[in-house]
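Notebook entry, structure prediction.
Reason for the run: the old model in the group folder had no record of what sequence produced it. Starting over properly, with the input documented here first.
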Amino acid sequence: MSVRSSLAMLAVGAALAVPGVAAAAPRASLASSVGTREQVEWVRRASGNFVAAELRRDGAGACSVLAAPLRATQGRRTCAERWDARLAAMLREPRFRAALRADARAIRSATVIVHGDTASIELPDPLMSGPNRLRWTEMCWMLEG
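New structure, fully documented this time:
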């Protein structure tokens, strides 16, 4: 077994040891998802963490779920600074807040498709500007945008 596989199994085990994570996804919703139970639940957890951070207006929390290229400093502004500004503007709009709340409710039963090191989650609204794609990197699922 490779070092990466061993570490991945340890990380998945640690994530599932958190009370309530396994119970967060209804069994029926796993039937339409593709991937192991652990992969599906972990993708949902990463997506849920991202949406929860946005609802809290926590740019740093949202950035913690983004893949490395999206976290890079741009124009002397950190990822957290960019997301704090974006969220301050967008959360003023009731339509955006409603979309976030709809995504938050849908995550527990959303269809997740895992294919190798990539995954997607079907939600009412995109998590960012495009498809809801995540990649297995840095020993966890990170949003690619």
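Summary: The longest strand covers residues 133-137.
The old model has been moved to the deprecated folder.
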